[in-house]
Design a protein that fits this description.
- There is one protein chain.
- With about 475 residues, this protein is α+β, with helices and mostly antiparallel strands.
- Helix content is about 20%, strand content about 35%.
- It is built from 10 helices and 28 strands.
- Helix 2 packs across helix 10 and helix 6 packs across helix 7.
Length: about 475
């Protein structure tokens, strides 16, 4: 038979699954249910598998310290308080630790702001104690179990967050694509709730105190993390939507400024050159009077002529002679299209290396080989992919390129030149199909490793006005 757990009317406890290492609780045998202070209470998930996200001020005297938690919903019930008021509350189950004992308890969520105790421990929680003898409560004394300290919260900002279910939004116009499907699958495997949102159907309420993103006639809820999959054709509007989620306070895997910078091919090459990152020699001019000089800067043909707004290898032309280059450039100018010219790296032999960088690390790499008769190695242009072992220099170059743009997820395309790796492009919405199938790695899962690391459970910020409370 285990030793009886003795409790006073006031005790320290911990709720480890919620990321709450120290709380003061009032032990009240006169109350049937237990209650935990919570604000911004947001239910989410599918019917029959509901979850709830909420914030808590673990230290009553410090409302600026906000910790965000999530848990499975076990019930929703009416609770009548000691003053006779009835409130409908969400009920969760979570382990409680007191001294060296830990057991699961059901807790209702209620806003206890202004109360001395942000947790109330009632009879049902004591009756759930798994040992033979129910805890003995001595109402005339306090702290019969070891004392904890609120000091544990001081260092939490720099610690890895407590693992919890996150509400994740994927901004995409292609919910059925391989990349999006894999991100949904990987997130749900980890018990996150992942929702696909059509970027172009989002609209924004922009004001100083309460920025919102609206969809289907109502404001979207708060998302712990946002994964932007912004197509090149909607970069301007897509990044505006991403900026709005940043203003709301969600963790965004690739921020709007990073996407914008990487999408502007001219600016991207200027940034790479500024930071001393190897790249093919590149030139740009506006006036048709400078066409000949522009071509001359590239040296002997062939040279590449590339539209500034292009993706997946489209809008990229190989000019075998100076005359051919002049013709292509003239055609682009007639279309009023912006373009740049670039050195053709012959020794690459129609091959490039795609490095997938997540959270500042190359997690997978593949070699893409152009189809016969084609110089572009993009998979969308018929290229093939195989797993590739990259050199230390190639790894460092890929990491540095992603870091230069501040991208949490990036596809960095490299050419193997005689003078070292050359960055062709840094892609802020890289496809996952080729890299996962060629490398055999769970890249989508590695993306969630980064999200879980950065979508911190503790934040210091103002409480958002108008938040859902029930």
């Amino acid at each position: 038979m285990s030793e009886t757990l003795t409790l006073g009317w006031e005790e320290w406890c911990a709720l480890p699954k919620l990321g709450l290492p120290a709380l003061k609780a009032k032990v009240d045998t006169g109350a049937k249910t237990s209650a935990l202070h919570a604000f911004t209470i947001e239910p989410f998930g599918r019917a029959g598998k509901m979850k709830v996200r909420f914030g808590i001020h673990p230290i009553p005297e410090r409302p600026e310290l906000e910790i965000y938690c999530s848990a499975d919903v076990v019930d929703r019930r009416d609770v009548t308080s000691s003053n006779g008021e009835t409130e409908t509350r969400w009920v969760i189950e979570t382990p409680i630790r007191m001294g060296d004992q830990e057991w699961p308890v059901q807790v209702t969520l209620s806003d206890r702001e202004g109360m001395q105790f942000h947790m109330l421990l009632g009879r049902q929680a004591l009756q759930a104690y798994p040992h033979d003898d129910e805890p003995r409560v001595v109402p005339s004394v306090a702290f019969q179990q070891p004392k904890l300290s609120y000091d544990v919260y001081e260092g939490m900002q720099n610690e890895r967050p407590t693992k919890r279910s996150l509400r994740v939004a994927i901004l995409t116009r292609e919910p059925g694509s391989y990349s999006t499907s894999r991100l949904v699958e990987a997130g749900e495997t980890r018990e996150h709730v992942v929702e696909c949102i059509d970027t172009q159907r989002c609209y924004m309420l922009i004001n100083a105190g309460r920025p919102e993103v609206h969809y289907d006639g109502k404001p979207l809820p708060f998302y712990d993390a946002v994964i932007p999959r912004i197509g090149a054709s909607i970069t301007a509007y897509g990044t505006a939507v991403v900026r709005q989620f940043e203003a709301i306070g969600s963790y965004v895997l690739n921020r709007s400024a990073s996407i914008t910078a990487s999408r502007d091919k001219l600016y991207a090459h200027q940034v790479l050159a500024r930071d001393g990152i190897g790249m093919p020699t590149t030139a740009f001019a506006s006036s048709p009077k400078d066409t000949a000089d522009l071509i001359e800067l590239m040296g002997e043909p062939p040279i590449i002529v590339k539209l500034l707004e292009s993706s997946q290898g489209r809008g990229v032309v190989l000019a075998e002679t100076k005359k051919a280059a002049d013709s292509v450039i003239s055609a682009f100018r007639d279309l009023r299209a912006d373009f740049l010219v670039q050195q053709f790296v012959k020794e690459a032999g129609g091959e490039d290396i795609r490095c997938l960088v997540v959270g500042g690390k190359v997690v997978a790499a593949m070699k893409r080989t152009a189809a016969p008769g084609e110089f572009r190695s993009n998979l969308h242009q018929g290229g093939s992919a195989t797993a590739e072992k990259i050199t230390k220099k190639e790894r460092e170059t890929a990491v540095q390129a992603a870091k230069t743009f501040g991208l949490g997820l990036a596809g960095v395309d490299l050419l193997r030149a005689s003078t070292g790796p050359k960055v062709l492009e840094v892609n802020s919405s890289p496809g996952l199909e080729g890299i996962e199938k060629s490398s055999g790695k769970d890249v989508a899962g590695l993306v969630y490793d980064q999200i879980e690391k950065r979508a911190a459970s503790i934040k210091r910020r103002r409480r958002r006005a108008g938040a859902v409370t029930a």
